[in-house]
Specification:
The complex is a heterodimer of chains A (311) and B (315). Chain A has 13 helices and no strands. In chain A, helix 5 runs parallel beside helix 9, helix 5 runs parallel beside helix 13 and helix 10 packs across helix 11. Chain A has 311 residues and is mainly alpha-helical. In chain B, helix 11 packs antiparallel against helix 13. Chain B is built from 13 helices and no strands. Chain B is mainly alpha-helical and 315 residues long. The chains are: A mainly alpha (311), B mainly alpha (315).
Chain lengths: 311, 315
C-alpha cells in the first residue's frame, strides 16, 4: 500500500517534470519586464506614437505640406484665448505661420525622428559590434591599438564633425542617418569588447570546446547570446540619443529641410513664434519629450530585467 | 608628477593635429566654393579672389600653408565677414562663451554635488526618490526644449505670474549683466546638475557602506565630520573623471543656448558660419573648441592623478 503510494507519487512527479517547460533567460527577462509598470506604460505609449506616425497620411485630412491661407497661425479650437484666431474643428493642434496643419506635421516629424533613431542606431550597432567583437576576440596588441583609437575618438567634439559633414554635403537626408550613426558607435564598441573579452575566458566556453564545438558554433551559441543583453539595453538608450542629435541639428537649421519636417525643426519654429503661438512649441515638445522618456524607461527596465544580479 | 603632466600634455598634440587635419580636408571636400554667388564675375576677378585666399594652389599646399599660419596663431581671414580675421571674431566671442560655460559648470557642480549627497544620505527616503525623479527629467529633456519653455515661463508669462519686476530678459548679453545670464546659465547647467547628482549619489551610497566609514562611525565621530572628511573625498573621485565629458557636453549645449538667447559667443558664430559656408571661420571655431576641450580634459586628468593615490605616474 505504502509502496504503491510512493510509486504513484514519483510517477506523478515525473509526469509533472515532463510538463514543466524550461524557462530561458529571455522568457525570464520578458516576465520581469512586464512587471515593471513604467516600462510597460512606456512601451504602450511608444507603440501608439509609432502607429500614429506610420498611419499619419490617413489620420488627417490634410497633407503635411498643404497650406491653407485662410487659417495662418491659428490656435486649435479648444485653445481658450480670444486674442488669437481659431483654426476650426479639423485642425486639432492648430496651424503654423504658413497655414499648415500642426497635427499632421508633428506626426510626420515623428516619422523622421523615429526613422533616424532606428536607422542611425542600426549603423552604430553594426560598426560597434563588429569593431568591439574583433578587438575583444583578437585581444593582445590589436585590442590595445583598437581601443586606444576609440579613446582618442572619444575626446573629439564629434557633433562638430557631423555639422561640418552637413555643411559640406548640403544637408543630405541619407547622409544625416549615417553620420549620426557613425558618431554613436564608440560606447557600443566598448561594451561589446569588454563582454567578449570576459566571456572568452569563461569555463563554459572551455567546456564547449572540449565537447568538440567549433569556433563558429561557440560564437553563435555561447558568445552572442551573452553579449546580446547589454547590447539590447544600450540600443534602447542609443535610440533617444540619436533622436536628440538629429533634433539638435535640425533645431540649428542644419538637419532636415522644409517642407519635410522633424521634431527639431518644429521646436525651432515654435521657439521663434512662442510669444504669439505657444501651441507651435508645446505640441512638438510634448511628443518628443514623451518619446525620450519612454525609451529611457524601457532601457532602464530592460537593464533591470536582464541583469542576473537582481535574481 | 611634472614629467607625467608634460607627457600627457605632449600626448594631446596628435589629437589636436588629427582634428585640424580632419576639419581641413572635410571642408575642402565641399562642392562649391565660398565665393560662389548668384552673380557671375569675370573670370579674371574670380582668379584674383582665389589667388588672394590661396585657393588656386593644390589642396596639400593649402593644408601646409594653413598649418604654418596656425603655428603662428593666425587663423586666416574670414571668407564672409570681409573686414575681420577669424582670430578677431573668436577673440570677440570667446569671453562670452567661456563665462557662460564656466558659470554653468560651477552651478552644476555645486547643485549636483549637494543634491547627490542629500539623496545618498536619505537613501530610499522621499527626499531621495524626489531628487532622483527630478534628475530623470533633467537628463531626458534636451536643452532646446527647456530653453524655450523656461523663456515662455519667466520671460513671456513672467509678467503675468510674478509682476513686472521678476520677469527676466530672454535675449542678449548686455555686457554680461547678471540678470541676462540667469536663464542661459540655468538651461546649460540643468542636465549636468541631473547627471552629477545621479553620479554622486551612486558613489556616495557605495562609500557610506564601506568598511572605513563604519570604522569611523564606530570610533564615535560625528556624522557631519564623517561625511565631509571621510566619505565625500572618495565619493567625488568618479565626478572628477566625469568632468571631461561634462565639458564637451556644455560646449555642445552652448551652441543651442547661444542661438536661443542670442548671445554673441563663438557658438553662435559657428552656427552662422556653418549655414553661411564660411570655411575658415568654421574651422577656426572647431579648432578653438577642440583645444579648449583637450586642455580642460588634461586638467581633469591631472586633477584625478593628484587626488587618487592609486594612479601611478608611470603609465
Amino acid at each position: 500500500m505504502i509502496m504503491t503510494d510512493i510509486g504513484a507519487n514519483s510517477a506523478n512527479l515525473m509526469l509533472r517534470a515532463q510538463n514543466v517547460q524550461g524557462r530561458s533567460l529571455w522568457v525570464d527577462a520578458w516576465r520581469r519586464l512586464l512587471k515593471n509598470r513604467a516600462a510597460v506604460l512606456s512601451m504602450i505609449i511608444l507603440c501608439v506614437i509609432a502607429v500614429m506616425a506610420v498611419l499619419a497620411p490617413w489620420l488627417s485630412q490634410y497633407a503635411y505640406d498643404y497650406q491653407d491661407y485662410a487659417v495662418t497661425s491659428c490656435a486649435p479650437n479648444w485653445w481658450n484665448d480670444p486674442g488669437v484666431c481659431n483654426a476650426g474643428g479639423t485642425h486639432w493642434f492648430g496651424t503654423d505661420s504658413l497655414g499648415r496643419d500642426l497635427f499632421v506635421r508633428v506626426l510626420y516629424g515623428a516619422r523622421v525622428s523615429l526613422a533616424v533613431g532606428l536607422v542611425a542606431t542600426m549603423v552604430s550597432l553594426l560598426i560597434g559590434v563588429a569593431y568591439g567583437a574583433t578587438a575583444g576576440y583578437l585581444g593582445g596588441r590589436f585590442d590595445a591599438v583598437m581601443m586606444r583609437l576609440v579613446d582618442v575618438l572619444y575626446s573629439l567634439p564629434f557633433i562638430f564633425f557631423v555639422i561640418i559633414l552637413m555643411v559640406v554635403f548640403h544637408r543630405n537626408f541619407y547622409l544625416l542617418f549615417v553620420a549620426i550613426g557613425a558618431v554613436e558607435w564608440l560606447t557600443m564598441a566598448r561594451i561589446v569588447r569588454g563582454q567578449t573579452l570576459s566571456i572568452k575566458q569563461k569555463e563554459f566556453i572551455e567546456a564547449a570546446r572540449a565537447a568538440g564545438l567549433g569556433s563558429l558554433g561557440i560564437i553563435r551559441r555561447h558568445v552572442i547570446p551573452n553579449v546580446l543583453g547589454p547590447v539590447i539595453v544600450y540600443v534602447t538608450l542609443t535610440i533617444p540619443a540619436v533622436i536628440l542629435s538629429e533634433s539638435f541639428l535640425s533645431f540649428l537649421g542644419l538637419g532636415i529641410a522644409d517642407p519635410l519636417t522633424s521634431w527639431g525643426v518644429l521646436i525651432a519654429d515654435g521657439t521663434a513664434q512662442m510669444e504669439n503661438c505657444p501651441w507651435l512649441l508645446v505640441f512638438p515638445c510634448a511628443f518628443m519629450t514623451a518619446t525620450l522618456f519612454c525609451f529611457n524607461f524601457i532601457g532602464d527596465g530592460l537593464r533591470d530585467a536582464l541583469d542576473p544580479k537582481d535574481r | 608628477m611634472i614629467s607625467y603632466a608634460l607627457r600627457r600634455g605632449l600626448g594631446a598634440i596628435p589629437t589636436l593635429l588629427v582634428i585640424i587635419t580632419l576639419a581641413f580636408f572635410m571642408m575642402r571636400l565641399a562642392p562649391g566654393g565660398p565665393f560662389d554667388t548668384q552673380r557671375h564675375l569675370p573670370a579674371e576677378i574670380e582668379r584674383n579672389v582665389a589667388a588672394a585666399y590661396d585657393l588656386d594652389k593644390p589642396v596639400y599646399q593649402q593644408y601646409f600653408i594653413y598649418l604654418g599660419r596656425l603655428a603662428h596663431g593666425d587663423l586666416g581671414p574670414s571668407y564672409k565677414s570681409k573686414d575681420f580675421t577669424v582670430g578677431q571674431l573668436i577673440a570677440d566671442g570667446l569671453p562670452v562663451s567661456a563665462t557662460l560655460g564656466l558659470s554653468a559648470m560651477i552651478l552644476a557642480l555645486v547643485f549636483g554635488v549637494a543634491l547627490g549627497v542629500t539623496a545618498a544620505l536619505h537613501q530610499n527616503d522621499a527626499a531621495d526618490h524626489g531628487i532622483m525623479s527630478v534628475a530623470m527629467f533633467g537628463i531626458t529633456i534636451p536643452n532646446f526644449v527647456t530653453a524655450p519653455l523656461l523663456t515662455l515661463l519667466f520671460g513671456v508669462y513672467g509678467l503675468r505670474i510674478f509682476g513686472a519686476d521678476i520677469s527676466l530678459p530672454v535675449a542678449g548679453w548686455n555686457g554680461g549683466a547678471f540678470r541676462n545670464m540667469i536663464l542661459p546659465v540655468t538651461v546649460l547647467a540643468l542636465p549636468q546638475i541631473a547627471i552629477i547628482a545621479r553620479l554622486v549619489r551612486g558613489s556616495m551610497v557605495e562609500v557610506l557602506h564601506s568598511n572605513y566609514v563604519r570604522t569611523a562611525r564606530a570610533k564615535g565621530l560625528p556624522s557631519h565630520r564623517i561625511v565631509t572628511r571621510h566619505a565625500l573625498r572618495a565619493a567625488l573621485l568618479p565626478l572628477v573623471s566625469y568632468l571631461g565629458p561634462a565639458i564637451a557636453q556644455i560646449v555642445t549645449g552652448s551652441l543651442i543656448v547661444e542661438q536661443i538667447f542670442q548671445l554673441p559667443g563663438i557658438g553662435r558664430y559657428f552656427v552662422l558660419a556653418a549655414l553661411d559656408r564660411d570655411y575658415t571661420l568654421v574651422m577656426g571655431v572647431v579648432i578653438t573648441y577642440a583645444a579648449f576641450i583637450i586642455f580642460l580634459n588634461l586638467l581633469a586628468d591631472l586633477l584625478y592623478a593628484v587626488l587618487d593615490p592609486r594612479v601611478s605616474y608611470r603609465t
